[in-house]
Amino acid sequence: MTVQPTGQPPLAAGGAPVAGRRRTDLDDATERSVLSASDRRKPSIRFTLITVQVLVLIGLLFAGLGPLVWLLKASTSTTQDILTDPFALWPSGVQWENLWFAWTRGRIGLHLGNTVIVVIGTWIASLLVSITAAYVLSVLRPKWGPFLSGAILFTLFIPHVVSLVPLYLTILDMPGLGVSLLNTYWAVWLPAAANAFNVLVIKRFFDSLPRELFEAARIDGAGGVRILVSLVLPLSKPILAVVSLLTIVASWKDFLWPLLVLQRPDMQPISVALPRIVELYELSIGMAALFLALIVPVVLFLIFQRKFLRGVSMSGGVKG
Amino acid sequence: MIFAYFAWGPILRAFVMSVQRTNLVDPVEWVGLENFAYVLADPLLGTAVRNTLWFALLALIFGFPVPLFLAVFMAELRGRRWLYTVLAYLPVMVPPVVAILLWKTFYDPSSTGLFNAILGWLGIPPQPWLNSPEMAMPAIVLEATWAGAGSAVIIYLAALTAVRTELYEAAELDGAGIWSRVWHVTLPQMRGVILIMILLLLIGAMQVFTEPYLFTGGGPMNATVSVMLMIYNYAFLFGDYGAATALSVLLAVALGILSGAYQLATRRWSQE
Fold this sequence. Notes:
The complex is a heterodimer of chains A (about 325) and B (about 270).
Chain A: H1 37-41, H2 43-75, H3 79-84, H4 97-104, H5 108-140, H6 145-157, H7 160-172, H8 186-193, H9 196-207, H10 211-219, H11 224-235, H12 237-253, H13 256-261, H14 270-280, H15 283-303, H16 305-319
Helix pairs in contact in A: 2-15, 4-15, 5-8, 5-9, 5-12, 5-14, 6-9, 12-16, 14-15
Chain B: H1 2-20, H2 34-41, H3 43-63, H4 65-74, H5 81-93, H6 96-106, H7 114-121, H8 133-160, H9 166-173, H10 178-189, H11 191-206, H12 210-215, H13 227-237, H14 241-271
């Protein structure tokens, strides 16, 4: 990404989300927005506001929830029913066995498991690398620190497109090691770990921690690793949560890279395997497979929606 | 800790090397600018560039105003805002592959396809959607907008909380109506975010791959071949890694020029 923050508040010291001010829906009655309290009392404005509200709600229900509900319906209908009338409600009865068929024959379970392996591995690798890198750059500050920092920053300005093919060839034949990572999960985990954005965000947070703390700990005889584990990490929970969220969501959604490096069908995560599964079976089974692939992230989102949205808007502040 | 650097090191090196690499056919050979010449002479490139720009333009037209309107509107809500936010963000949680395969079913060109059935209620004849060179790209952009709008809404909402509210008071005293308050107070204060969101949208659109790859594979009649799809085909269909790298470098340079020009063009406006 080639954008630098302009005019945006930098990541607030202490990690307090800039957007967190309006967290609860109740207390923003005291804050004003475009409409003032007197506007809200005017009947004409009230009426328009309510009308627009209802219209937008209908639109959002239609666009946001509609496709998912339809998918649930389609995944439990017969192919014939889907094809003849997409809006008919189960004219031939509910086919729960579609889901079972997709799960067993389509091996959705296996692929979901692979996705989990990919996501967790990416998460661990990426946190490990970005935390240690940020710690070295921000707290330990070796002489070659600025050089490394510049090298990391440099990668942020190069679009990922450039590295796609060379990175693939690197995976195919690791230079100097003579091994191929093709068809191993390392091929997904390691490149994802080298995420300059994560390193810089965490480094910026570490920079904002009071340095006296580190001095005090050092005087008490704590070593570098000790300071990191028992001092820095507990203090940086909020930023680590945001970085984890972004990393996990991105790796769950990733398609092109796993498609390239995980070519063995039984290793492929769900996103790579789905197009094949959908093509292989009839429409209703395909829809059932899509539904099963969808349900996990959506349910997780609905459970954690509040934390989740706060994290996303905070990351927007970081990115912007 | 040092070990982590060894994991990071090769990747960094690969990154730098990628810029210098010229050719990677079996015996590695220096061929100078031959790859670039080859890529630039490919008749498909013009089509791909046109398609990619068309995609970016459509993505901007579809994908920019809707989230902005939603965010400004949702900031006015009292009480049930979370419901709107969750609904707007829900499509973002759908993995792209699932979304694309689902929408592909929606775009079924027969008269009983989902979208055609809806059009049928309104008395509009069934459309060919992805099967027609004219409609395929807008159809793809529509899906991409649906999938991406939610996160833009959240970011705009976050930016809206930073808008200084005293100015509304002042504008109101001066007799400004609701629309002029939005236009003259809200939007100018958000222009930093808006400008960056547009740029990110454009950069993302220029690198579009998954959508055309899964929806149409570039067809019909190459109407949806994007530059990224060409890179993929060069490298992984034809095994011509040199040409693929050359094209990626060209794309990257184009992106760099785009964002540089964009920053320059909007600098005055964003600093006022």
